[in-house]
Amino acid sequence: MNFEIMITDGSTRLGKITTDRGIINTPAFMPVGTNATVKAMTPGEMKELGAEVLLSNTYHLYLRPGHDVVSNVGGLHEFMQWDGPILTDSGGFQVFSLAQLRKIKDDGVEFRSHIDGSLHFLTPELVMHIQGALGSDIAMVFDECTPYPADKEYTMNSLKLTSRWAQRCLDARNSEQSLFGIVQGGMYKDLRRQSAEELIEMDFNGYAIGGLSVGEPKELMYEMIHHTGPLLPKNKPRYLMGIGDLLDVLEAVSAGIDMFDCVMPTRNARNGALFTSQGRISIKREEFKNDDAPLDPKCSCYTCSNFSRAYLRHVYMIKEIISMRLNTIHNIHFFLDFFRNMRDAIGNGEFGKFRDEQTPVLQENFHP
Amino acid sequence: MNFEIMITDGSTRLGKITTDRGIINTPAFMPVGTNATVKAMTPGEMKELGAEVLLSNTYHLYLRPGHDVVSNVGGLHEFMQWDGPILTDSGGFQVFSLAQLRKIKDDGVEFRSHIDGSLHFLTPELVMHIQGALGSDIAMVFDECTPYPADKEYTMNSLKLTSRWAQRCLDARNSEQSLFGIVQGGMYKDLRRQSAEELIEMDFNGYAIGGLSVGEPKELMYEMIHHTGPLLPKNKPRYLMGIGDLLDVLEAVSAGIDMFDCVMPTRNARNGALFTSQGRISIKREEFKNDDAPLDPKCSCYTCSNFSRAYLRHVYMIKEIISMRLNTIHNIHFFLDFFRNMRDAIGNGEFGKFRDEQTPVLQENFHP
């Protein structure tokens, strides 16, 4: 994996990650394909929409169908028929947010599956083995996602555990995979610094900021992003995990973040919440019943190029599968188009202007 | 609408229906798009798979979103973005099979919606108005689907009602639509003859056989098809409603039937029951867990060209939307390919050979 910065504008960077499976232009949005499928979409459609990298979930694939199954069929790319780069998370966040009866030990985490209650024990070594079996291009270290709020002692111990696990992941890494460290440290600036320094010492291919957007006020999250971003090596990709509110993305890009992932475009789509140039639209509303206009007149996606709001409302109300497809196409297009436009703006030295122009539209979409 | 017979082989016919929106090669299979969408599919995908005509349901679209909504948006073709021919059924069968508290009166049928219990009254004139508003290429007369079993007096009265309603539909027809009559008469040969004669007198653009596959033994259904098919005008399309077991289709084609519709390929797909050259496969079976072979090695569809049985099982087990998409693509391909091959065989004077060759495979798919 190679990372090249093309242009910088203050802390903001326009970059390019070159992998064996293709180029990822940064700042990049990674659509989420939790169970080896971006919900409702084919891999071909994702490519057409311009996705350059997908994220898939180690925790979910470990539980179902099992990494051995994926490996037997030739790895995750072959399994899901996506030939571009894939980043797998480590399961650390899912163990924190989904699994039950979680017991964190020094060696790893014992938990019960959220699906069937079965007992599991994930260690850094096993997580690296799973990600190796999946064959993702970028693997993530196994970390403890520090909860919010957490006192300083807990947070300190937690970040130390994450650092020890990071080293064990490095030791167990599959040489063909890139590996990213994950900075923890909760809402304590000195601990964020300590976490970053310990991980930088280990020399990862890239660095993620974890443990944000876990319940803290937005101002605090922004403060942590601005504090932590610049601590990370300039010549490595920086990834802000799980954040997709595009106002937050603008803030993070201004702090030098390069990579993002979020289920928001796909999940909201299935709930009929659609992002548009005129603000968020809830497609179920009565006012759209006879509306023959496209969802977003300024949008060039397949959905907006072909179907009326009346049709989108109709198929949403009766829960037809086509509704989830058309809505997902639109929302992913909205996100990927936003990132394309943002990269163009950075390339033209106009990120500030882009941010000012986009902010009111994003307010109407993300905080209407 | 023009109907041309290219080749006959005994009672079997190879034909071509020319509509303003395109050609329908017969024998034809009409995939079902009940709610203005073939479940899980885009119209573009249906075209790619070779569908030449879709069926949509008057009863469902009348209830949701309402024919006025469809009409306001420019009609059903514009609404669902399918520019090929559409046949709409009349709602007669759905009133019989879905609606509640049905009261058949001479003027029409009073019933309660299966969705919200609301009270409705469908008459032949309203049904023609609805189909006119939808703007389908081929409309069907409003009929009473005679139940099974039914005594001769009931069946006689029922067919007379259907004949009176057929005349009222003709009187109320929209001149731009083709209109098909529906032969009833239950399991009584003389009443089937009487129904056919009364409808032929009225001169429809085509003739359907209704009231079959309603619970009667298969031998009796075959007897009725062989009896009724030849009673219908040779120079008009003949449509056997709602039947899609491909063994039944072979039987009906041998009796001179030209058109078919059935939800079987789409519904079975969503339930993980897949038709293949090796017989029906239930994709959830444990044996497919690590199976890297395509679903059907002899199939050229998108699903079989790209994905393994292991993947299809995985996404089926966790109910991912892609499962319904990939399965539906495959099953529709299986049906449309069967019809293409059958038409080729008829064209080559080899329908008998085709039927003999296909019968064992179809047994394994439809009566395993």
Question: CATH fold name of the largest domain in chain A, please?
Answer: TIM Barrel
Overall, the morphology of chain A is globular
Q: How much is the average pLDDT of chain A? A: 97
**How would you sum up the major sheet of chain A?**
8 strands, parallel
Distance between the termini of chain A: 40 Å
Figure out the total of helices of chain A: 15
Describe the structure.
Two copies of one chain form a homodimer. The first copy, chain A, is 43% helix and 18% strand. Chain A has 368 residues and is α/β, with parallel strands linked by helices. Chain A folds into two domains: 2-262, TIM Barrel (Alpha-Beta Barrel); 268-353, no CATH class. In chain A, the strands form four sheets. An eight-stranded parallel beta sheet of chain A has the order 4-14-13-12-11-10-6-5. A three-stranded antiparallel beta sheet of chain A has the order 1-2-3.
Key phrases:
homodimer, 368 residues, alpha/beta, TIM Barrel, 2 domains, eight-stranded parallel beta sheet, three-stranded antiparallel beta sheet, 15 helices, 16 strands, 43% helix, globular
Set down the secondary structure blueprint.
Two copies of one chain form a homodimer.
Chain A: E1 2-9, E2 12-19, E3 22-26, E4 28-30, H1 43-49, E5 54-56, H2 58-63, H3 67-72, H4 76-80, E6 86-88, H5 92-97, E7 100-104, E8 109-112, E9 119-122, H6 124-134, E10 138-140, H7 152-172, E11 178-183, H8 189-202, E12 206-209, H9 218-228, E13 238-240, H10 246-254, E14 259-261, H11 264-270, E15 273-274, E16 281-282, H12 302-306, H13 309-317, H14 321-347, H15 351-366
Parallel strand pairs in A: 4-14, 5-6, 6-10, 10-11, 11-12, 12-13, 13-14
Antiparallel strand pairs in A: 1-2, 2-3, 7-8, 8-9, 15-16
Helix pairs in contact in A: 6-7, 7-8, 10-15, 11-14, 13-14, 14-15
